[in-house]
Specification:
Helices cover 37% and strands 21% of the residues. The protein has 314 residues and is α+β, with helices and mostly antiparallel strands. The two termini are 48 Å apart.
Length: 314
Amino acid sequence: MSVFNKFPSIEQFRHFIKKCKFDGLSEVEITGTVKLHGTNAGIRIDENGFISFQSRNRVITTEDDNSGFANHFSQFGVIDLESLIYQLDLYDGPITIFGEWCGQGIQRSVGISELPKMFVTFAVQYGDGGDAVIKREGVSDKEMGIYSVYEFPTFKETLNVNFPEECQQRLVAITEAVEAECPVAASFGVKGVGEGVVWTGGGHTMKVKGDKHSASKVSKLKSPEDLEHSRKLKEFAENYVTEARMNQAIDFLKEMGHDLSEKSTGHFIRWIFNDIIKEESDTMAEWGLEKKDVGKSVPAIAKGWYFNWLGENA
């Protein structure tokens, strides 16, 4: 009996930021790979060597296929497909190799639609069900038409989780370049548009698509005025959410009998916010900042520091 492992949805930029903040992350190194416009596919090999194929939402067969994926790989022997496992971490359980089945006849109006059909792998799931672990990695076997997305151009960025606007600008610029000319198609000597970029870091994944493929306009470039205001908020917070001020907040929690735990995060942030409003109102006026601005920039830094303090003083 075939088992179906659905590849999880890739989220938007704003969701990525929220999850990183929830995890207490302040800076994340992210890696981008080219997002290909094809159809999601997978090859599952269980611990007994049984092989099955799937699309995004179901198990597929040679009789009930999706764009010819099962028929293409059914022509290869079990030994050929099992050889893919040797490129991966040693594991004695089922493995599902995820990727994009793309090329001629699958999608239109993109550079890769001019190429022969190929399976570009981008992730591997080790195990099934709740204990499964997904890693962003790929396998490759050119004779079978399998490539790893990591064989093609990748991108590196550093994302400041608390002040993401500047990095967002760079991500949009990279996406626009990919949309203008797909790096994967270009590596085969073919010109044509791309879809976008998938970014991974901090245990989370997000997608940034170009306008031609985006279902929502969530990645618009900010105006110079908006960016200048964001930089000002960042600089103010870094200058005035100081180590000394946060240690004072810890003393306040102790004095008031609050638990030194995550339960007191709100009390901690509120004390710092109120102290800055009380002590630095003249400075805020000089910087052209209002109370609501401080409410946007201060809590993220304070929360990250508090969670790190809790970890070091557990």
